């Protein structure tokens, strides 16, 4: 059972530019992470885009949807910025693909000591092996359906819409 | 949906004793980990024992089983040394409790830069929310039933018995 | 021989704000660092300011100078942003205090896995015990006099003016 | 001014063997460390041996002395296990080479999150540029002469013999 990981950037893959002193993108850290977590699940990595999700336009989300559609794999993990993750999830959810899709991201970039990125990736990789067909989000150790999740921007956590 | 995490020690929670220069146990790192991974799932932590799983005797495994039995929660994650994880899984599996139990551990202690502990914990916390009643093991990004898993000691990975 | 560490902020002490997704200041990491590096030199920590050195005005540099002047200690380490470290060094150098002052900073914040902050702090703490009276900068494993150092902004390294 | 770093192993360079679950040696981490700390001092790395200093025999210490003698560089840093660092320092000190030698090590291996290795390396690299001819040890942010230093094994710190 091969899993495709579609990489779109987001806080997860932010890189620190020491010359400019800011957070930006350079490359994905997924190959490095998958190695040290000792993952033996067959993975197909796809670098779809490296973008802050606040900068995502409709075309960007269509590019993610198109990748999901084209993927030969039935099970897909998507790394995505948290700010508009639910918007892309909605685009994917409404498309109604017969695939198991789990989106995740990070509140703290992987390159920080105390990042949630590796934990979230673990959640997503197992979730995608167990969920039914449909689009899901995993953050904060929880799993949400695409149409019942929102980011609480004050607390920096994801929560169900229906309390 | 509250999840109980039963801590038994293992490589996951190994501590470096800088005076003696060896790996030993001092305390669990679970509270610290659950905080920085930003977990919002209600968790009940239970420090069952802190032991190298090579030192586990029947009484130690019974102590784990008894904790599972007594737990008011239906969903239980167990951190455990990898060397005899499948043996404890067998004890739990044969007991046939009507609970969802997911065991995990680490090949590299949490305190190392390149540990698999946090990833494995993510896998276990999501798995326990999705699996049917029974005893499971998650390692290497994969999920196994208790009666179809073995540790490949040469490669340091878990694999299904039935190739 | 007590050493005063005057903290002014800079990249060294940058903090990641996971709600806003940017690098900012919250508190200094010096107490935590001094503990795990097992420093036994008596240290007096002074939180002078927490500021990006690009935002430093004359008043900010005067505040650092005034702290150096008032300090009962003869040996002073200053953590400072790299962008205008040489400017503050010039202010301190021209003041001609009869003290041993060593400035340092970081190109990558301490909170990143691959930060140079801890290394630079080691350099500064030893240097201040060995240098003659005057103002010095240590970065990149090298020691510079305040009037013969510049930051090479393309390479992100400090170098002597007189090649 | 080129600096030679003579590597002998010790806790500094300990590696975690995830198959056997113990700390051992595999290779030195110095090239990786020197890169991320952004060191621009010309360095000549010499892998002299990779050994726990408790296992060091006379021949091992002679091998270090011989490397110091043969080195074209005047300034030498030696990474060494802490348990018998003072013994090797005595061998080197009594040899009376006309070189500046600074020994250091680590109480916690570099591969741990909270290691003192990188800090100690910073201390040693700056110290060797400033000390007079002779053999020195830097640990805990302090600098000691080879004939006035001992390891306090209860506290895990280095201290002067003459309190």
Would you write up a description of this structure?
4 copies of one chain form a homotetramer. Chain A is of the alpha/beta class and 163 residues long. Chain A is 28% helix and 29% strand. Chain A contains 4 helices and 10 strands. Chain A has helices spanning 30-36, 58-70, 85-95, 117-130, and strands spanning 3-9, 15-17, 22-24, 43-51, 75-79, 100-104, 134-139, 142-145, 150-152, 157-159. In chain A, the strands form 3 sheets. Chain A has a 6-stranded mixed beta sheet with strand order 4-1-5-6-7-8, with helices on both faces. In chain A, helix 2 (58-70) crosses helix 3. The longest helix of chain A is centred in the C-terminal third of the chain and has 14 residues, at 117-130. Chain A starts with a strand and ends with a strand. The mean pLDDT of chain A is 97. Chains in contact: A-B, A-C, B-D, C-D. At the A-B interface, helix 4 of A face helix 4 of B.
């Amino acid at each position: 059972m091969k899993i495709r990981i579609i990489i779109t950037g987001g806080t997860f893959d932010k890189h620190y530019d020491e010359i400019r002193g800011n957070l930006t993108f350079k490359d994905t850290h997924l190959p490095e992470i998958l190695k040290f977590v000792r993952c033996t699940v067959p993975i197909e990595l796809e670098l779809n885009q490296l973008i802050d999700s606040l900068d995502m336009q409709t075309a960007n989300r269509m590019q993610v949807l198109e990748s999901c559609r084209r993927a030969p794999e039935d099970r897909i993990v998507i790394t995505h910025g948290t700010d508009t993750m639910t918007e892309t999830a909605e685009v994917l959810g409404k498309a109604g693909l017969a695939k198991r899709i789990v989106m995740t991201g990070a509140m703290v970039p992987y390159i920080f000591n105390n990042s949630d990125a590796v934990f979230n990736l673990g959640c997503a990789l197992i979730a995608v092996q167990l969920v039914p067909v449909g689009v899901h989000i995993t953050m904060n150790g929880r799993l949400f359906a695409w149409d019942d999740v929102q980011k609480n921007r004050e607390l920096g956590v994801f929560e169900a819409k229906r309390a």
